[in-house]
Structures are given as C-alpha cells and as structure tokens.
Amino acid sequence: MFDSPLSASAYDVLGVTPDVSDEDLRKAYRLRLRQTHPDTGGDAAVFVQVQRAWDLVGTPDARASYDRGHGFGDDAASFAPDAPQWRPPSRSADTRPKARSFGQPGGWRRERYLTLIREWAGRGVDLPDPYDPALVRSAPHEVRRLLADALAEEATARIVAELGMGYTVWHDVAADPRDPDAKLDHIVLGPSGLYAVLSEDFGAPVRTRRGELIGDAVTGSPVAHLVLTARGLGRAAKVKFSGAIVVLPDDDVSVVIDELGRVKGLPVAVVGRAALATVLRRGITGAREIGGNELFDVRTRLQQIVRFA
After folding, report:
1. CA 230/CA 228 separation, integer angstroms
2. Residue 268's pLDDT is what?
3. pLDDT digits (tens, 9 = 90+) for 122-142
4. Is residue 56 located within the same domain as residue 189?
C-alpha cells in the first residue's frame, strides 16, 4: 500500500508531519485507531491502513528505515520497470510452462507517464531518472495515477503468467480504434471462462455499492466502463465474456473477494491481488465455463481481432 506512487505516506495516514515527535506520533496513532475502528463506525480498510502505518514508523528503528526508503531520504527504491521490486521473481528451478501471453502490460500507461512527466518536470527534455521517487511523488496526481496503474497492470501480469499453459492472456488490448484511451488491461481465457480484467490502484481504500466502486479516490464508474468495454470487444470478436474482474491492491479492499453479481448482465467480482489466481482458476459465480473445442475457437477469434494499445 505504501509503495504506490499514489499512496499516502505512513505519516499522512496517521495525520501527522514527518518531523513529529515520537510521543505525538503515538498519540496520533491511538486517535486514528479510535476514529477508524469498525466497531465504532469506522472503515475497516482504513483501520488496517492505520495499523500498517504504525508498523512502519512505530519504533525508532522502523521509522528511521522508513524515512530512508520512502522518499524522505536518499535510499528510496525507483519505480523503473527494471527495478528489483517490479521484476518478476527469479524461478530458475521452476520449469512449468507459463500461460501464453501477448502484449505489453502497463506499456501504454508507462509511455504516457514518461511523456507527461517530462513535459511537467523537464519541459520535454530528458530527465536523469523519470522514475526517481522524490520526482514521482511531487508530480501532479494525474501523472502519478498513470504510473500507479502501470505498476498495477504489471503486478497482475506476473500473477496470470503463473496460471499455466491452459490459459491465454492478452495485455493492453485496444478496445476502440477510434479512441486510443479505450482499452482492456487484460483478457484472460482459460477453463473457468473468458474474463475482462481491470487492474487499478487508487492509492486509497475502495468499497463497493450497487455494483460499482466507491471511495474518495474513485472517479467515474470503473465497473460499468469495464463491462461495456468488454461487451463491445466481445461483439466485434463474436465471443461472449464469462465475467469481469477488477483487481486492487490487497490493502485497499476490506473483502478479499467481493462478488457483485451481474452488472449489465455480466458477472463481476472485485478482488484483492493475492486472490486473483484463485478466482481465475475457480471462476466467478454465474460465469460460464469454456472448454474443449470452444476454448480453441474463442482463442482463434480473439487472436484475429485483438490489437494492442
């Protein structure tokens, strides 16, 4: 949660400044616990954030380490795509076949981020490190949002790659050639069905109500837009999506798997990132499974029409 370009710092979550005294920090933590506790009407996801924030800065050693690594010092990790924390883990001993994968996850948003960060910070000239955490965290929200969503897409891609050879995945799929901004982050095809997947990071806790995402950081209607986009692409390819999935950082959801029922006729689930593989393997309630020759036919139809953003 605190490694997102959009996320508030541990100090922000606790409602203090980075130079607060240890005693005042402790008082702020206790106050935020009371304010956010679910038993007194608080938000469960925010309550978890408060506890996590205290874990990061609640002792002198932890606080010193956090300050060095979160952009307050010189040791903050880069958001670059080749930085160790964003690369898939090394699995030299794992020889199991991966899912078939096409496209570049997060590619469109990373390209857009690089364009905008250079325009904002360098007036179009090259920057020494456009992913420097101090630079990223000082950028406008809309710029940081692009990078946060790119990282979210890359995280999802690493998960679905491990589903195995029975799955085919397309990333960054252009949904409307007339609108370069219209895309599906991922399409996942496997025995449990054909799913349109949206990877999001709002940088804050998110809830659901009446089939849609809500929260202070949520804009528009992400679920409705995902369903309509999937339906449009499905009509073009002459295939039927089994369901739609919204993937969020684990710390930003209070329910790990939240099945919303049918939204505009399509089963939808909002899941924490750690539960994504489980959901894709077992499917969503009400979603139609795909197998045998139909699986091959759907894959062929999509391959013929898919274009990348």
Report:
1. 5
2. 98
3. 765 667 889 888 788 889 999
4. no
Name the DSSP letter for residue 178: T
Residues 162-178 pLDDT 10s? 999 999 999 999 987 67
Nearest residue to 206 via CA among 52, 41, 49, 86: 49
Report the CATH number at residue 49: 1.10.287.110
Same domain assignment for residues 44 and 146: no
90-99, 170-179, 240-249: the lowest-pLDDT one = 90-99
Residue 207: in which H helix or E strand, if any? strand 207-209
**211 vs 261: CA distance, rounded Å:** 7
- Measured over the CA atoms of residue 137, residue 142, residue 146 and residue 149, the dihedral's sign is positive
Length of the chain as a residue count: 309
Q: Which residue has the tokens 């307050």?
A: 72
Structural domain of 43:
10-69
Contact between 157 and 186 under an 8 Å Cβ cutoff? The reply is: yes
* Six-digit token string for 81: 């795509």
pTM given for the model: 0.84
- For residue 79, being part of any structural domain is answered with no
Q: Is a pLDDT exceeding 70 seen at residue 66?
A: yes
Q: What is the layout of strands, in order, in the sheet containing 243-248?
A: 100-102, 168-174, 183-190, 193-199, 243-248, 266-272, 257-263
Kindly state whether residues 170 and 209 are assigned to the same domain: yes
